[in-house]
Amino acid sequence: MQQVKKDEAQFGFTPSAELLNGRLAMIGFVAALVTELVTGQGTLHFLGLM
């Protein structure tokens, strides 16, 4: 495995990118649940998509 300098840009499936992606997905899921609990409608109905 190659060593990457810290000042070089990294693209693709890096561990830090995957951690950020997972955390944002969890925040989005919780936000959808809270929206459903507060409004009494599903997320798609709330957004007017259904």
If you compute it from the alpha carbons, what radius of gyration comes out, rounded to the nearest whole angstrom?
18 Å
**Number of helices, counting only DSSP H or I runs of 4 residues or more:** 2
What is the β-strand count?
A: 0
N→C terminal distance: 48 Å
**How can the largest sheet be summarized?**
none
Could you estimate the helical fraction of the residues in percent? 55-70%
Overall structural class, as computed from helix and strand content, comes to mainly alpha
Order of helices and strands: HH
What share of the residues does DSSP label as strand, in percent? under 5%
Broad shape: rod-shaped
Mean of the pLDDT scores? 85
Oligomer: single chain
What ranges have pLDDT less than 50 throughout 5 or more consecutive residues? none
Model description:
This protein is mostly helical. The chain is built from two helices and no strands. The N and C termini lie far apart (48 Å). The model has no long low-confidence stretch (mean pLDDT 85).
Question: What is the element layout, followed by pairings?
Answer:
Layout (H helix, E strand, L loop, with lengths): L14 H25 L3 H4 L4
What's the short story on this structure?
The chain is mainly α and 50 residues long. Helix content is 58%, strand content 0%.
